[in-house]
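ok, trying the design again with the full structure, not the truncated one.
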């Protein structure tokens, strides 16, 4: 494992760098929680540790990208173990107040852009808890 401060190779089990003595934990830029250097997501808040957005902007996504790849991979690899499984789920239904009146006044592209902003905010939180969007 490479030290985040001096880039020296260390044992995987090292908590401090054997060259400079720095902590081998990577701090989350969002909440400050220590994480292992090889972590991609914060173990406290679920945000990406590389500072990039959890979900790409809507205009860069295809419809299938409503589920992030890390979650899709997890679902696909555990498919055999979840087929036929019964479990409790939480379902969120959201209704936008005044949607019809607003959509009658705006161009479809403007309406789409407004709703994409809402979906982006919701997706980050839903994906943080390994939820999916239909």
């Amino acid at each position: 494992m490479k030290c985040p401060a001096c880039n020296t190779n260390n044992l995987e089990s090292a908590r401090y760098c054997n060259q400079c003595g720095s902590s081998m934990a990577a701090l989350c830029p969002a909440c400050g929680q220590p994480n292992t250097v090889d972590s991609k997501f914060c173990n406290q808040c679920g945000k990406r540790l590389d500072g990039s957005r959890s979900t790409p902007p809507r205009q860069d996504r295809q419809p299938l990208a409503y589920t992030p790849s890390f979650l899709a991979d997890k679902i696909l690899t555990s498919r055999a173990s979840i087929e036929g499984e019964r479990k409790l789920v939480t379902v969120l239904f959201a209704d936008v107040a005044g949607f019809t009146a607003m959509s009658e006044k705006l161009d479809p592209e403007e309406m789409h852009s407004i709703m994409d902003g809402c979906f982006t905010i919701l997706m980050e939180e839903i994906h943080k808890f390994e939820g999916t969007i239909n």
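Keeping the full-length input from now on. The two ends are 39 Å apart (CA to CA).
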